[in-house]
Amino acid sequence: MAKTAESAGLPSTTSDPSLVVDHKTVYFEVEGLVYHVCRYGFETYSLSVFRDMFALPQGSHEESAVEGATRENPIKLPGCTTSEFQSLIQVLYPRQLSGPPTLTKEAWTGVLKVARLWDMPAVAKVAIEKLSTMDLKPVEKIRLGKEYWVPTWLEEGYITLVDDPSMASKDEMETLGWDTIYKIFLASNQVTKRLETDRGRLWDRVGKLYCGYCALAQQGGYHREVSDPQTVCGTCSRIPAESGYGVIVSDPTALSALLPQVTRLN
């Protein structure tokens, strides 16, 4: 009678796949530098690029002939810099238990770039969450939102600049291109006309309301947000619904031509 591991006094093994870690490694080359890393993170988080790459049948059984199996025959990764790749490695294989690593804005931008490049939506989501807590300027939100498919940033950036184009410098504006600059100033002009025409009336704007007295009556136009027209303004102590100025916001219809149709991938 054949002995089982249990009857032989040997420890049993688990078949739970969540407790089994694949330690296969791969060699990648980025900008002439070769990296030897674990395949697990790339296979797990890349929904197509690396998962499909590693699933392809190999034409030879000799290790030296298999791309990525040796330092001499690494898989070359174009479209990525060494700093971007190293930042991604820190995210895929963190050295601490407290969650994602602490990276700079530039590093997280690089992570977002390669996450989109290599179809890693979960990694992109983390990068977007981290970048959203950082000081992204309106122009950065528009540029990054367009480039890496983050519609929330696009909307926030456009609305900020339509409200106040002076929030971006001339050099920053030029990076958007003249077509976008024209649309921003056109929408801003439409909003200004709406404010002049509808002074004292109420209208909506993407869920935010501002005290009409603070924005229109006070010199300089201070925007003080209020929760509803019956709420006392914390700056002027007036109730917008009773002040004669109401609550004002930018006209959302003026923004409609600005916000391109972007597929939400995050």
Automatic annotation (TrEMBL):
InterPro entries: SKP1/BTB/POZ_sf (IPR011333). This is BTB domain-containing protein. It comes from Ephemerocybe angulata.
